[in-house]
Structures are given as structure tokens and as C-alpha cells.
Design a protein that fits this description.
Helices cover about 45% and strands about 15% of the residues. By secondary structure, the protein is an alpha/beta fold. The protein has one domain: Rossmann fold. A five-stranded parallel β-sheet has the order 2-1-3-4-5, sandwiched between helices. Helix 1 packs across helix 5 and helix 2 (about 45-55) runs parallel beside helix 3 (about 75-85). The longest helix is centred in the last third of the chain and has 26 residues, at about 125-150. The protein is globular, with a radius of gyration of 15 Å. It starts with 9 loop residues before the first strand and ends with a helix.
């Protein structure tokens, strides 16, 4: 069985309905030079459709990371996490939960559904830019773990 070379970029799904936060995430990823393709689902229903589509088609590359706002139109973040964790192909996808709500109201749902990291949306630009570093560390750690499993 031939081993696949690691791709030179990461696939990230951002599930976020706020245009300003989408722009800030893009900026944070760029500032930290995260080599990625950023896909955006602007509501929970679209995110679940995307997850189901990826799970059903083994030819599609699953996401390397999901950035998830917990408060979304149509379906909430907890439903998205439950669906993600119930899939065959996407269940191990690292998830960073982002929220502007009081952390105590969403943290339990995030932990219960195996979110890897919790990122409260900060009030300053500098604090928000730290998200890029968080994402880069998670992706590199995941890549090293996967490479170690192939060796």
C-alpha cells in the first residue's frame, strides 16, 4: 500500500454567520501564514449538509479542521458537533469552538462533543489574531500525529 504524501495546504471549514467574524478569521489565518483553503458554511443546516456529503463520498478530502460558532441559524453548534462525531470519515476532525456568548453556556456542549479547543471571541483585534496561532498549532500537531501513524 503506497503512502500518501501530506498535502501542502489544509482544508478548513469555518461555520460562521457573522461576516465581520469571517473577515477576522481570514485575517488571523493570513497573519499566521496558515497554508489553507477556507470553506465557509454560513448556517448550521449548510454545515450539516457539507458534513454528510463528505462522509458519503470517499473521493472527497475531509476537512483538516473545523472552526465552529455555536450560535447559528437553522441548526446550532451542538447539533453540528453531534453530526460530525457520528460520521465515519469526519468523526476525528479537530474542532475549535468559537463563541461570543458567555463561555459557561456553550462550554459543556463543546466538551461533551469532543471539541478540541475553545476560543471565546475576544473584544480586541490583537486577541482575535491569536486564533491563527491556535489553528496552526492544532494543524501541525494533527499532521505530526498522522505522519507518526504512517511510519
Amino acid at each position: 500500500m503506497a503512502s500518501e504524501a501530506a498535502p501542502d495546504y489544509f482544508e478548513i471549514l469555518l461555520v460562521e454567520d457573522n461576516e465581520a467574524d469571517i473577515a477576522l478569521v481570514r485575517r488571523a489565518l493570513k497573519q499566521h501564514e496558515v497554508p489553507c483553503v477556507l470553506r465557509i458554511a454560513r448556517d448550521g443546516g449548510h454545515a450539516i449538509e457539507w458534513i454528510d456529503h463528505l462522509d458519503a463520498d470517499s473521493k472527497l478530502r475531509p476537512f483538516d479542521l473545523m472552526l465552529l460558532d455555536m450560535h447559528l441559524p437553522k441548526r446550532d453548534g451542538e447539533e453540528i458537533l453531534q453530526r460530525l462525531r457520528s460520521t465515519e470519515r469526519c468523526a476525528q476532525t479537530p474542532v475549535v469552538v468559537m463563541t461570543g456568548q458567555d463561555p459557561s453556556t456553550v462550554e459543556e456542549a463543546a466538551i461533551k462533543n469532543a471539541a478540541l479547543s475553545f476560543f471565546p471571541k475576544p473584544s480586541t483585534l490583537d486577541e482575535f489574531m491569536e486564533l491563527g496561532g491556535v489553528v496552526l498549532r492544532i494543524l501541525k500537531a494533527s499532521q505530526e500525529e498522522t505522519a507518526g501513524g504512517r511510519a
